[in-house]
Design brief:
Blueprint lengths: L15 H22 L1 E3 L5 E3 L3 H7 L2 H31 L4 H12 L6 H11 L6 H8 L10 H29 L3 H10 L3 H12 L1 H16 L3 H6 L11 H11 L3 H39 L1
Antiparallel strand pairs: 1-2
Helix pairs in contact: 1-13, 2-13, 3-7, 3-10, 7-10, 10-13, 12-13
Length: about 300
Amino acid sequence: MITTKPVNQKAWWLVLPVVICVAFSAVLPLMTVVNYSLQDIFSPERRVFVGTEWFALVMRDEELHAALWRQLTFSLAVLTVEIPLGIMLALAMPAKGWKSSAVLVVVALSLLIPWNVVGTIWQIFGRTDIGLLGAMLQEMGYDYSYTGNGTHAWLTVLTMDVWHWTPLVALLCFAGLRSIPDAYYQAARIDGASKFAVFRYIQLPKMRGVLMIAVLLRFMDSFMIYTEPFVLTGGGPGNATTFLSQYLTQKAVGQFDLGPAAAFSLIYFLIILLLCFILYNWMQRVGTDSKEGSDHE
């Protein structure tokens, strides 16, 4: 007769605090938003059930469509600039010694600055009277104005985000590079591989995991950007830098349209989940195909 030893399930109690924290910080607020999205709220005591009316209203909102397009364009631009720049910065950083530690500290400095302070720094930096960037561009003959020109404002917000968050990509890539065993580089030197071949066949495949994390983190964060452009431009000039999060805040706080704002926030949440799911699966497929190709070669 075979007897099985009973499994001790007491370890699940260790997960209970996490479940409680997630419930209070995510699940319960989400249920509140769902409740608001299905009702027309006149006051805390007066509300009417409207079903999916707010969702239909939000989906017909042309301003929402424009904000979504601006947001997608901005997030794609962020990934296009920050990922290659972060990889190049990580490759240029010293690998060992005190120089490596010093460079790591310097690179990480911008990540320590709060978001609202970043917006204030660039607000002053871009001024044409006292700001270094604005005054320099004016001296070079460019009529630069992030408060009066929509293109200048958009590019300034993009540059600010690149300055603030490229170090995160660089640090992740640096960690991926340091995890590569020296045996790979020794074999490459014996085979006479060029620097580009080492990067393509050794470094880039080994960084695939951290690059996936960097892309997902930067995409999600850039898609939810709010504080920096709000402090820098206030969403202007016009609606040039009014992204989805600012549009949602205007709906909920500025106009006090809680029903449409709740419906929009749920759609916003689903858009982020869907795009991250597509991006993750695409990167997994590309990584698998590149690995199979390198094995065949």
